[in-house]
Amino acid sequence: MSNTENTLDDKKYNKLIVILSVVIPVAVAALFGIKIDVELPVFLPPIYASTNALTALVLVLAFIAIQKKNIKLHERLIKVAIVLSVLFLIMYIAYHMTSNSTPFGGEGGAKYFYYFILITHILLSIIVIPFVLITYVKAITNNIEKHKRIAKITFPLWLYVAITGVVVFIMISPYYA
């Protein structure tokens, strides 16, 4: 496929990438304002935190697979990581629409560390959306050189978001009701 064909293929996805990159964070924020009078069990946060942990593991395995030039395995693992991230988001939204937020009860340095991790996790979880989508599109349109370049940014961002999601859960878990 020529660069012109790659560019044309990429462009047909650009509008969708922009829409999803805006709609997902806005929808999450809006849904936080909606409370449904159904209390989901407190075991849901460990499940979605485990989903984040599994996402991090799958991302590392995908990285190893591509380092070993196992492209098919890499592709499958990235698709699994995307599905896990979507499942996490669905469970996270469902829990927060039905349950009150749990405040962090720690003090001192732990409190500052928690809020640093939480804030960077939230901000980067928004920022990583277009990176994941663009990286994926570059791969499916066979624009491998651009895919490799953006993946060098996407991978550490996505891994950081997945790992810090688990750290946030571990730090807040003693304060669940």
Automatic annotation (TrEMBL):
Coiled coil: none annotated. The keyword Transmembrane applies. This is Putative membrane protein. Keywords: Membrane, Transmembrane, Transmembrane helix. It comes from Algibacter pectinivorans. The chain crosses the membrane at residues 16-34, 46-65, 77-95, 115-137, 157-176. The keyword Transferase does not apply. InterPro entries: Cyt_c_oxidase_su3_a-hlx (IPR013833), DUF420 (IPR007352). GO terms for molecular function: cytochrome-c oxidase activity. Pfam families: DUF420. It comes from the Bacteria. GO terms for biological process: respiratory electron transport chain. One of its GO terms (cellular component) is membrane.
